[in-house]
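Margin note: ligand = 3-methyl-2-oxobutanoic acid.
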Amino acid sequence: MFTSFNPKGKQVEKKTMKKGKVKEGKTKEGGVKKDRIMFFDTTLRDGEQSPGASMNLKEKLLVAKQLAALGVDVIEAGFPASSLGDFEAVKSIAQQTKIASAIAGLCRASEKDIKACWEAVKYAKKSRIHIFLATSDLHIEKKLQKTRAQILDMAIKAVKYGKSLCEDIEFSAEDAGRSDMDFLCNFVEAVIDAGVNTINITDTVGYTTPIEFGGKVAEIKRRVHNIDKAVISVHCHNDLGLAVANSLAAIENGARQVECTINGIGERAGNASLEELAMVLKVRSHYYNVCHSIETKELYNASKLVSRLTGISVQPNKAVVGANAFAHESGIHQDGVLKARETYEIMNPADVGVPESSLVLGKHSGRHAFFKRVKDLGYELGNKESESLFEKFKVLADKKKAVFDEDLVTLIEEDANSGKETFILDYLSATSGAGTVSTATVKISKIEDFQKPQATLSFQEAACGSGPVDAAYKAIDKIVNMDIKLTEFSLRAISSGEDAIGECFLKVKYQDVVYSGKGTSTDVIEASTKAYMQAINKAKSFADKEK
Ligand code: KIV
Ligand code: ZN
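Resulting structure:
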């Protein structure tokens, strides 16, 4: 059971969902009753569909744990039938015993997809199968080349099959925002009759406007006779910048689940942003009079984590979690905030989890200070991981005078990311200078068989380039022999001081799929090379799994 506070400051109890019904939260005193809004997070599925946002298994597990710390009701962990990698990721997340959120997997309305989804989600304490099928004539006729009657039949069969495996079924009417309302209402009624617990009304292409979308939800509530047997959910895309507004309009008209992602990432312009929805419902709780289970103090950490892992940076003026969200530039505003914070601040930064100060560690910092800071940053480490991390911290502290939070987070995540890599960089030497041709030499080990890591092959190559990074990449290309195309490259300092850590973030294309890579070091050529190696390893592992 989760707790939060209602506008009058009374503690509210929120009951967890049972068999697709959203229970009301009520005060301990039995006073104000509030409807509960369920948060369905799809960062790991729709969010991962953002170009270049693909994450590896370890990264997905980190995100899933953070989503659980946020208290989301449902984590959509992936689309199990879409690839072996997705299947394994959903299964591993479902197997995490400490995650209390329900684990959902997406699937098309086919037995094969539904079965694969169940095989992946069945390990979770609470599992959900999420089936989708388009209901707009445009999608039915042009994309699926079927009739409305065939779609209805497919949907009912899919729900019945899903229900034979899993108690909790969600059904998404894809492109509902542009669907004929008579057909949509019939469709919703039929899938609820077949047994769905949650009916998801999607604005797949972000086309609708708030009053219009809220009206559609109201119409479904009014016209579908069995609507009280299911939770109405909404899934809004942000093509016109209206995803959050549309979701809120839906809540005002009876939706009780919102689908969203951290930082609003997702297909094209993204999905409704979780942090914005959660903070609107908190800051304007008098207006909406609903409750939810999001621990808002975890929002800042979640935003940082997802941005670091996907390489999709958060725009500075992004609501709630942007770097400028609580920065006051004008003198009049600064004066006002100093006199009374509420003059220009409608949210307390602490409620979002923005850290007030960051403790700086250095080479004299002992274990106690180090592990306390790691814990305060929200990481839980096992004994083995802790030892290896402390060793790496000492090495870094010898190179750098001050080790900031950003440096620590980088160390921890680099450690979490090292795993089954086919190519390992053993040696790098690069030369450059004015009027000289840049050259680089690299030595790389290739692990052919993960069961026999000792049986590695070692390669060495040298190349010239238009700069040391270009030379290093050319030398690596000669060894990996994979026709990799670099499509994006950026370098930045992620901590302060002359000895700051440099982070390289890049994207490469291999066999029409985009992969991101990130590398950090106090040496920017090393950081750039590590990033390139990471992207190549992701591409190699994905391509091998697809074989
Ligand atoms: O945007 C959409 O319609 C979706 C569904 C698959 C839920 O992502
Ligand atoms: Zn979507």
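The two ends are 44 Å apart (CA to CA).
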